[in-house]
Design brief:
homodimer, mainly alpha, Tetracycline Repressor, domain 2, 9 helices, about 70% helix, elongated
Chain lengths: ~200, ~200
């Protein structure tokens, strides 16, 4: 996959400042002025890099997607297919603080994207990307005899994708599901696929 | 369950105006002034009913939860246990426009709730309520011999809850899963519970 975005250090620095602002005050708290202050630069300098609030939000979402994608690719070398699927899915589940930050910011931006075509497109791209990833994991598991012949890969991808997104939200906003329990559920679900 | 909120017509009228503003411009677009204009009243009149933006958002979230609860209770008379579970779960899935509006507004408010204790508490209450509903459905299905003895009701409630929340988000933001397919997946999942 080609790099979607320019890894200019200044752009990354600003995007990370945006994340901190979103974490502190929600997506509704994001103004060019606040993000500039958080990044320690002037609003004018920020506007030079990101002429509009939308451009800044779009870059920030793409940066999160790209970082997740890089971490996912790092696991493709894991030998055991079930363990590989688990490791890859763990990259999109907010099990630790770094992933919680990503997920929180991403959710805030996705929710705030309604009516903004550029952000909506990026958000749909992430949705489609995660569906494709789930499907690829299932095709891989089937290749290793770990998905029962009666199961439909597209149906299972839809199920796995919804399960992962629901668990991600629950790790983030709920108080009921500790990471260890979510990991156990994901593993149990993947293992259950070999049965009818 | 006692009524959580006062069904004053004026409060409801203002909350519904808020929903329209959120649908149009996201939770970040919500200001007392905009909502007052949308409701056709003065900002002063709105502040008389809801002294703060938080009070308005909290009422709006509780109103959605109460409406969902009322619809859920209306299905408890359905005879067939699988059909009853399906009907009840359909009330929290945005299959049609009315439920899409609720879900969209709720998601926007939940995401915007970070750092606002009153809103966070209401959002956690909704999370816990849906988990309890999923668990109650599974206990009911087990009573009718429709959940295999090897399955743990709490684990299954966690799975069903995550699945439902993920599917709800996908119905709302994705472009891949038409309602008919989501209904089929939910039914298939409920039916699969009787197997090991």
């Amino acid at each position: 996959m080609p790099k979607l975005i320019d890894h200019d250090a200044r752009r990354t620095q600003i995007a990370e400042a945006l994340w901190r602002v979103v974490l502190r005050s929600g997506a509704s708290g994001v103004s060019i002025r606040d993000v500039a202050a958080e990044a320690g630069i002037s609003a004018g300098s920020l506007r030079h890099v990101f002429p509009t609030r939308e451009a800044l939000l779009e870059f920030s979402m793409l940066l999160i997607q790209e970082r997740v994608g890089e971490r996912v690719r790092a696991h493709t070398a894991v030998r055991d297919p079930l363990r590989r699927a688990e490791k890859i899915l763990a990259e999109v589940l907010p099990y630790d603080d770094a992933r919680r930050v990503e997920m929180h910011v991403n959710l805030a931006l996705v929710t705030d994207a309604a009516g903004r075509p550029g952000l909506e497109e990026i958000s749909l791209g992430a949705h489609d990307g995660l569906r494709a990833l789930c499907r690829a994991l299932l095709v891989d598991l089937r290749k290793h005899g770990l998905v029962h012949a009666d199961r439909d890969v597209d149906d299972e991808a839809m199920h796995l994708h919804a399960l992962i997104d629901g668990l991600a939200v629950h790790l983030l906003v709920g108080r009921t599901d500790p990471p260890a329990q979510v990991r156990r559920l994901v593993r149990g679900h993947l293992e259950s696929l070999s049965a009818n």
